[in-house]
């Protein structure tokens, strides 16, 4: 069974038991969050009708909050002696997908 969820302006293909990093969520570590599935499917042919239901939900547990790798942003203007460097680290949340519920 798998589903596609949307969080932080991005879409993720998820399966139960998977751990993935998404943009920072405001909930605390250890709490469970629910995402609305944009699309879901199962391996069984008998559940094919239920897979098309738009009310599937994905339950996930927040494992930890972390920061991504540092990205260097460098700007330069040719022949003007202008150089500027700055860095950015994205705030991330690591979640573990617990269950996909079809209704």
Poorly predicted segments: none
Radius of gyration: 19 Å
End-to-end span in angstroms? Answer: 14 Å
In percent terms, what proportion of residues is strand?
over 45%
Total DSSP helices: 1
Report the principal-axis shape.
elongated
Structural class by helix and strand composition: mainly beta
Q: Helix and strand succession?
A: EEEEHEEEE
Q: Count of DSSP E strands? A: 8
Largest sheet: 6 strands, antiparallel
List keywords for this structure.
two-stranded antiparallel sheet; mainly beta; six-stranded antiparallel sheet; 103 residues; 8 strands
Can you walk through the features of this model?
The chain has 103 residues and is mainly beta. It has one domain (2-101). It contains one helix and eight strands; from the N terminus they run ββββαββββ. It has one helix at residues 48-51, and strands at 2-7, 10-14, 19-23, 32-41, 57-67, 71-77, 82-88, 91-101. The strands form two sheets. It has a six-stranded antiparallel β-sheet with strand order 2-1-4-5-8-3. Strands 6-7 form a two-stranded antiparallel ribbon. A hairpin with a 4-residue loop joins strand 6 and strand 7. The longest helix has 4 residues, at 48-51. The radius of gyration is 19 Å and the shape is elongated. The two termini are 14 Å apart.
Layout: helices, strands, pairs:
Elements: E1 2-7, E2 10-14, E3 19-23, E4 32-41, H1 48-51, E5 57-67, E6 71-77, E7 82-88, E8 91-101
